[in-house]
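Q: What changes when beta-D-glucopyranose is included in the input?
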Amino acid sequence: MTQRATAAQVVARLSTEDKVRLLSGRNFWSTRAVPGVASVMLTDGPHGLRKQAGSGDHLGLAESVPATCFPPAAGLGATWDLELLEEIGEALGREAAAEQVGVLLGPGLNIKRHPAGGRNFEYFSEDPLLSGKTAAAMVRGIQSQGVGACLKHFAANNQEFNRMRVDTVVDERTLREVYLAGFEIAVTESSPWTVMSSYNLLNGEHTGESYRLLTEILRDEWGFDGVVMSDWFGTADRAVGVRAGMDLEMPGSNGSWNAEVHAALESGALSHADLDRACERLVEMVQRVARDDASPDEAPGAVDHDAHHALARRAAAAATVLLTNDGLLPLAGTGRVALLGAMASTPRFQGAGSSLVNATRVDSVLDSLRSRLEPQAQVEYVAGYDPASGEATPADLAAARTAAAEADVAVVVVGLPARHESEGFDRTTLRLPAGHDALVEAVLAVNPRTVVVLVNGAPVEVPWADRPAALVEAYLGGQAGGSGLVDVLTGDAEPGGRLAESFPVSGAELPASANFADHPTQVQYRETFHVGYRFHDTCGVAPRFAFGHGLSYTTFSLGGLTVSGSGQERQVEVTVTNTGERAGSTVVQVYVHDVASSVPRPEQELKAFAKVHLEPGEARRVQLDLGRRGFAVYDTATAAWAVEAGEFEIRVGTSSRDLPLRSTVVLDSPDTVTAVEAPSRPLVDDAEFAVLLGRSVPAPRPLLPFHRDSTLSDLDGTWLGARLQKLLLSMAGRRVSVGDDANSAMMETAMAQMPLRGVVMAAAGRLTYPVLDRAISVLNAARRGR
Ligand code: BGC
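A: The predicted holo structure follows.
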């Protein structure tokens, strides 16, 4: 057998031209082939394959091959079930392998800083430990099939508004403890083959051009040995990116950057060693994908779409969170059931944008409920509101009222219409559409035996929450969301979900609301760690529903807490007993409270968890490891994780607000934690923020004069803006084949917020950087002369 050439040998044989070409994609979805290196296909997305056959797009507009649409990440995060996540990852990997896809562009694991984030449905949690562990499980599953996974979007990409040029200003400790910790866990525990840098800037630097982020932190500290690719059209300076460790520009930009990269090589601004290193990493990735040591029985087989649909159904039930229940659920399964709400028959099961999957089939709640309950029960359906707009007419409400009044049980399905929640833009309110609230009120007024089901990708305000007999968060359930939900409503499956994010009473109470999506070029994370339950628990503000919360159809007791270990590490053991009559699962959650600290810390933080499935009467001893990081803070003065000696309280229970078991430990530790004064409020003022940042609070980059990072919307009303928009439209027009309300909203925003540098990349050679730069200077000169 001939030995395969190493990546270094392959790269050594390439010309400089070929090396530069290799580092930019061949087209929308593939890497470039050069002598000795095959092309590899990369495809979205996090919860299903979105393989586009022809020239594609990254906005979910053009058709893709049919694939299983699993529940999006918001639901998967709520399962807290790492085994299930691994199984779903395997299924995704199988579908990708069968379609000759080398890398699946997911999972996404950005922190849900604010519930209004438009893309929150694509992310797991507000908590880094849960996000990181969940992502790692999924990566292990995907990669077990010989397909690479891609952690995205690295990093601090927590809003959609002006996502391609907004500068996230965040202090180092918050960055490490809240926004990077999940990536760190996923990288160290699952060795992903690729990572995608994010669109935004981080503390003044494009993330794809940050040596510190991509080389010092990701590679040197965490040991990442794969490829970093850009987010689509996210490149801002290719030569700087290569030097920083951003190996692959995606999609390909027809050589738009090549002249600049060659010039940087000539001037020495970019070294040949850096170029070679990026190429070697890419070649290694291609070699991983095209393994020539794979045995014939490892060749991808046909996908069993029925089995994957069944898995998606199981996942939907496992993601369903029972928020309240006075005993009406599970349904008795007899009598008259009024099913109200258009989402029951026109399912919304995924979000718009690059994660949009062309599902192999879709189960509606209406069909699933009918086929499960009839003829023992009668199901009467009334739409109650318009599925697209969410508006309810007086006639809609009257019909719903009549049906509900005559029924033994009413099930109301409400949530967010597609246009309210999408990649590309954020929500402007946490309320449901007025018609949905009106439907709930109308039904509650005539029938107290009402179950309300929420279908949405992120928390909503539910002022009427304590009035229905039961309230269920179904999230966006994927293609089997309807049948999975009916399994839970009827008790065929248990509600497996526990909230992976807090539901605030109102968005106004959240500190991050003061600085969220409020400026076109900058966002300041002045709330520091006060995100999600870290805010609610530290500031004593009760959420509507707490992080970790979720009811079961059975009951559990927790007891026998013991803590062992020494030095800076501890292990926890606890006995969980199913004290009810049905099989079910619960999530044991371990939080750590630092009794006295030299730095301000959240009241408590999740440090370990375990999902436990038990038969009636069954008891199990569960072990959870807190390790050293369970107690550590990031000490900015020494740039290291440090454990401060002293007392810590270990709190164990089933939500951040229900932690009945407690034990205090005293840790020995040689570390020093440099003292930091606690700010007066959760939202730091200018002086406090400057201290945390270690520099004065940066002024946002002005919109004028125009530059490459200006967006088309900045150029509104100018001749250049009009021309570039026309060019972009003509390029997009070639690809767009389908479109609906949500997609057109997404498309409009994506266009308006596209930086000018991105227009060059998208223009397939019809515009170059020198031409763009000249046009910008002319425009700026004309403005000055005005
Ligand atoms: C998204 C990525 C996605 C890429 C390709 C971008 O707009 O941010 O998550 O993988 O497009 O579709």
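Observations recorded in class: Residues 44-45, 58, 105, 152, 231-232, 354 surround beta-D-glucopyranose (CB under 6 Å).
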